[in-house]
Design a protein that fits this description.
Blueprint: H1 3-22, E1 30-35, E2 41-46, H2 47-72, H3 77-103
Antiparallel strand pairs: 1-2
Helix pairs in contact: 1-2, 1-3, 2-3
Length: about 100
């Protein structure tokens, strides 16, 4: 897999950071970043960590997955495409939910 194929998913993975920075001044100093099974927040972070943590973890993980797919030399293009876009999409959804909860 070429680096060019990794570019778009990585850029999409950066969108949650842009979303967080767009509302940064409106976020509380402590943001919920983890919830229990009961739906109640049980983990908090500063707003800088809340804006950066999940997207950066997802981007790094996605890059590792992409290199793993390259090393494994997968021939299943559908699987490779799903694996390429799964984490960036999840990052968008998760960050949206974190920001929505933080903003009330």
């Amino acid at each position: 897999m070429k680096l060019k194929k990794m570019l778009w998913p990585t850029l999409v993975g950066l969108l949650p950071i842009v979303m967080g920075l767009a509302v940064y001044s409106k976020l509380p100093e402590k943001m919920p970043i983890h919830w229990g099974l009961d739906g109640e927040p049980n983990g908090y972070a500063t707003k800088l960590v809340g804006v950066l943590l999940i997207p950066l973890i997802m981007i790094v993980t996605n890059i590792i997955v992409q290199f793993s797919l390259q090393i494994a030399n997968t021939t299943n293009e559908k699987l490779a495409r799903v694996m390429t876009w799964l984490l960036p999409a999840l990052s968008l959804v998760i960050q949206f939910l974190v920001l929505a909860e933080s903003l009330g």
